[in-house]
């Protein structure tokens, strides 16, 4: 039934045959120690088959977990096992990302889970409230010797110890059930395999183990260590460079014209070595071989790599484009590429065996300094020598300095003992166990340590862990307890745990966050230094200093790109530029975070890859930071708000005010989003209002793409905030009613774009930087009720009575609402005659607009006064006259300016009378002008006036008398005419005789004498000017016609 799984080979090799009985016919825990390339993966397959043989079909509740230290190994097994176990009805699930929610659901339906220690650690930190882990029946550990790795070994050790605890917990809960978990581990050749077997015991007896030395390797390996002279003055770089010129000779001597793999310490070193070799050596290749290489070269994007491929040399590292890497791997696997230069990441990941493996220099660059390769790395690289399907022998060459040659000779033959590295990472893992309640007092902490590999090795080699060599078992236990207490005090110092006098330990909320988000202790120490007034750039800087980014290196060839992103007059640069040049890895992380959030494309492929990694980690850290700050009562409003915004920015990979909101939609990347921004679609509301066909035209896509995008936007939640102050005044607190409404509740019931766990955070702060209220509102709650209301007491602040109200989405940029709201207290209320403020926001979706629409519910008559001169003084503008000297010209408007008309609301009465009222108000403001004095005085009732009265009449010749007497007589005659003619009766019709009696010259003084309001009545003319008449402009004097021209 299961023979098809092993169809690739006719029989098992020696190692597999020796392990077969223990793995396939017993349920004991098992550890195999064998050289690389001896087919250890088959042992895992046999263990899975044993599990299936024991379980009745259908295998619904069968769960096996495979854990490998490298994602690439998980991917390799996933591809292989999906094909092998798929036909038997088993599903595999690769679990190596940093996602959380989806994984739990997907695991439920999978039978074989492939994961890394870090990922499984984060999953199992919640195991007590997760029944899923109770179903794990088989736990497979690949490369268990990685337990001694300084950075990753501790996680592997803790996860295995935790799985042992899961098993004992399950057994104690259900002793009759008989369901236990089996542990099967494999490792490279290590001398103290018995210690690993002791550690992986099932409680009553140690695991059975199989140890095979190099003699049982399927392909015999010849090991060569070459020592090269290095003077004291020569730097590591110089020495590394000198080895490039010895490479051609070594390949010629040891390769037998078969594929050669050369490991270099840096990416640049790999490229330089390849270039030197291509110049120095010429490979003898047939015409067909050259044709095949030419075919590969033509598909390669990197121009340098393309040229080298034609000469039979390639390079491969994480900075090479993914498609190029795949082509290089294919060419090398098929034997078409004679020599491949690579970095150690290839040794840990892709299985590319070669006949000859050369390790060029045993030094590597870690965090800016040189250090020796770890033993595990060296073994992994050597393990790539030998291709079982092609060769019977292989060669491994180590190129090192003369004085370290002896060390590597020993390493190749007698292997160093594997030790634990948990003691140097105890603080994070101890906190995680306290949160899980595995540890609740100091004695339990010691019990937990007894279940680890650290305890087993500390008893055998105490000096490695800083203990005295002549201590007995009790002395070592006392030292371990002391180490525990020291670690617990460190955690207690920054309130991650609480300890009482009876040494009982309890986790705090901050400690739970640290464990849940797998954040380093040093990073949490940074969080505790936040003062409360930090802005967004301050928090970006804080996140980029996290311990998790320590392994990010600043390379020389990246500096130019990073400095261009930071400051460049000709290109788009980051939002908060850093001072000076990019000099540290912290500055690099900061710059890359900002570049991604600003949607600036990064041309360097290596930097793009690092940015993706930074965001995976940064998403976790920023989320932890925002929860850490918001759950602490003393945190300032500014820092809490900035942290919420930053966590959302990391999630959306956009700044909170970014115009690229469309990038958050499915199927839209940076290119299409840029096209939408160029078309002016910078907010969700604008996209919603655009015709789908127009969207397709902008994006160069076919229907129904436009409909899909628009539908996605329509079904995003749209929020609205309403604030109202209750008329119960106090001098110390004000009562505000906050109402959050989901505007498109009906639409969202049928379909939602946002995920189910989407929520908004309502955070209100006052002018003293204190948080008034912070509340999470889930969409699911708003969907049921449509709105959410809460009464909030706002204490009086000393600096001002305005509060800042913010509604921040957890995942989407462009849904936030931010507004300011004035609050009134009893002293202020008396002056305002019980004026109550209200605020209502129209949610401009996609705009972080400042809304401050305040309307009054109770208004006194004093609020409806006419606009006075004081209110106009603040809102004047210059007139449109082009006078050279505005102080000397005759226009009064040039001296005093023109009042700007007030915008009218839509329901304002639009009539000629209101226009005249406006005009009259303006007139009151202006100084006395000839036009003003010429106003026609009218009597109480409107008068029907014939226009003939104002007809033109030729002027009489002046008499020869004095001018003064003539003017005075005219003035007197005009007064008598004014008194006697035409103004006695309202209905009186003017006749020709009256016109004859009218004077030719009117004395202007007369108009000034009568100042009574009745003389300036507004005529009842009511022709409508329409709503658009809301802004009075100056009259254009030059275009006015003279009366004489129209006669």
TrEMBL record:
PANTHER family: HELICASE FOR MEIOSIS 1, HFM1, ATP DEPENDENT DNA HELICASE HOMOLOG. This is Probable ATP-dependent DNA helicase HFM1. Its cofactor is Zn(2+). Its EC number is 5.6.2.4. PROSITE patterns: HELICASE_ATP_BIND_1 (PS51192), HELICASE_CTER (PS51194). Residues 846-866 are annotated as: Disordered. Residues 249-434 form the Helicase C-terminal domain.
